[in-house]
Amino acid sequence: MATDKRYIFLVDDEPIQNEMLKDYLSERFLYEIKTFESGEDMLQQMHLNPEIVVLDFHLSAHIPNAKNGVEILKAVKDQYPDIQVIMLSGQDKIDVAVDSMKYGAYDYVIKGETAFSRMENILNNVSELHKVKTINKAYKRTISFLTGSIVIVVALAIYLFYYMSNKASHL
Question: How much is the pLDDT for 1?
Fold first, then answer.
């Protein structure tokens, strides 16, 4: 069943962080925003086809056996490569950011006083990217349709030319 809803999934094992980010983004974007405390819970809802997943790097504070953010990132990108994943972490370490990007994250945001405004800028960029990809798909479908139409018209013209030539030669 097709849906017109556009989703952002927020995955953080700190409920307060999830709610604050949800409130901030809800005021600025028209996405339907769903929050999850574990990556496993989020993966069960992937049938909703979110455009964006904001994923905390550490996800095992309250659930000891929970997969970490990189493991969830890998699972998302393996099964849903078009979904943009933004990693969110309290760690200001370059190797954490590099690992995130290596496994397909769109961007990496460090939790702090500028995190929400940075997230807003990233989401604007992701939305623009989504719009460009959607327009590109529409252009490709149009070009395919026009190409098919031209092939049919040319084939019909060739057939009519030979048909008329054969009919004229029998007169």
Answer: 45
Give CA–CA dist 161/43, Å, rounded.
59
Tokens of 149: 């139409």
Beta bridge partners of 32: 7
Q: What is the 3-state secondary structure (H, E, C) of 20-81?
A: HHHHHHHCCCCCEEEEECCHHHHHCCHHHCCCEEEEECCCCCCCCCCCCHHHHHHHHHHHCC
If you average pLDDT over residues 128-145, what whole number do you get?
Answer: 89
Q: Whole-model pTM above 0.85?
A: no
Alpha-carbon distance 76 to 55, whole Å? Answer: 11
Domain 7-135 has CATH 3.40.50.620: no
